[in-house]
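tool_log.txt
---
The assistant was asked to compare two proteins side by side. It first ran the structure predictor on the initial sequence, then on the second. Raw inputs and outputs are pasted verbatim so the downstream comparison step can read them without reformatting.
(1)
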Amino acid sequence: MSKDIALQTKPMPERTPSVGEAGTLGQVDSTDLLGSREALMIRHQGECYILRKTRAGKLILTK
């Protein structure tokens, strides 16, 4: 099993997630957001944030 697959199937840490009014936590794959791009600008409550993929494959969100 490759390292990437092992990371994808690793269970989430036990903690109480913040959930929406419907009581469910949504999920979006990072490739659905970024596609082939290395970064994406996200507007939230009038502020701009940048979601970046690092060389190591991690995600960083900055204002």
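(2)
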Amino acid sequence: MDLLLYNLLTRFYFLAIRLWAFFDEKARLWVQGRQGIFEKLKQDIPSRRPGEKLVWMHCASLGEFEQGRTVIEALKRERPGVRVLLTFFSPSGFEIRKNYPLADWVFYLPADTKANARRFIGIVQPDLVVFVKYEFWYHFLRVLKSRKIPVILIAAAFREGQPFFRWYGRIHRQMLACFTTIFVQNEKSERLLAGMTDTPVQIAGDPRVDRVLEIAQQPGDFPLIEKFCNGRPVLVCGSTWPADEDVIFEWLRSEASAGWKIILAPHDVQSAHIQQIVSKSSSPVIRFSEAENLAAESFRTSKLLLIDNVGMLARLYRFGRVAYVGGGFGVAIHNTLEPIAFGIPVIFGPRHGKFEEAGFLIKNGGGFSINNATDFIKIMQSLEEPVFYTKSSTRAGEFIRENRGATGKILTFVLKQL
């Protein structure tokens, strides 16, 4: 009965995406990317030479890829001859990373049916499979287990409200049993799984920590950004949504923002949203795509630099005195690890419960959750006090220092399996 319900729900979900594709570009990419996928797999993945190993890593989207990429990169350094297949569920990951150079092949994951799972795994024939964080697809996991192919889950984070811990979650608990080992981010996840599954569970941490440390150590050269900042205190706002931008612009219009400059990198960089941001601003805006041709006076008088592209944000936090991470007034906050890798305090909206690092930051004074613009203005004013700022900045970097090394722990296990 549980499996019947799972099949009905997943098939309804996949059908809904196909119907939505008539109206939505992201859904259309999801459908188009899976057309003819098995023929492409047969064509692109040739028979392997004797002894050649293939590791398949699956990520839901871009955020999960950032958790898994350090493992791919470390593996390629240790074993350059290992082939890597990278798959995504969402266009948000595939479309941005489809040309990722360290993956030999990048594909969408077919819909989770028994037939698809058997056919996909039969073509790929992986030696080891790595699922990242929240990816649980019953038929793929069952086929992997039946064929005795090692499969690990990395960067896993479990919470009481998930189906694994509910009366109706039997099929999810069955999926846990399909993994060879589960690498969790923290002790809480380990405790929740105790007695829930016989699958070995290890605390490894979050590989994203290693990734953001790499970025912080190689921040890149941005002369136009330096020209804009010009020695002034800078608020770097990353992955913002309209609700976040309303809060930021209310602060910008207040006297509390005097002397500050803002670097704003929105989550959505489509022209309509970029124009919406420009119209909201009460002061001149520089669009990064147009900055190279602007006179020096524009850099001096403008308070807001708008990053109208994707890919720069993680390295821009080094210019900040304070960071604001968006998403907390919507589904959930985005990546707070990127700014704290540079040791700067971070502010975010109220929806942060899924992220251990956000709770750590709030508890230790390196990060601050707000509910509205008034909260934001008060926190920004507090951070102008030198002693308060120094304490907050020091605490912001503690999570990074205490949680590095997940990649090495996972890699040791992967190499043993190969």
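---
observation on (2): Residues 18-35+47-205 form a domain with the Rossmann fold fold (CATH 3.40.50.11720). The chain has two domains: 18-35+47-205, 222-397.
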